[in-house]
Structures are given as C-alpha cells and as structure tokens.
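Q: Sequence in, structure out?
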Amino acid sequence: MAALAWLLVPLVAAIGAGLWGGWAGRNRKSIEDGTELAGYTRFREAMERSHTGG
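A: Exactly. Output:
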C-alpha cells in the first residue's frame, strides 16, 4: 500500500503540472494592449521633449 501511495505522488504532480501549463498558456483575447501602448507612446514623446529642451 505504501508503494501505491508513492506512485500516486508523481501522478498527482503530473496532473497538476498539466493543468497549470494549460492555464498559463491559454489565449487571453479579452486583454487589449491599446491603452498600454498609448501610454508608452506618450511616455516616449515626453522623454524626447525633455532631452531636446535641456
């Protein structure tokens, strides 16, 4: 019975790793990068203005 318990440990770990891998690799279509890219563009423009004005 103890040997069966030790065989279940890697099986449970493999199932958990598979579930985590599927969750981590899912497509996230609901998140859009538009606002982040617009903010980055404003940041870049502000940095360019501060370097040319100084």
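The two ends are 76 Å apart (CA to CA).
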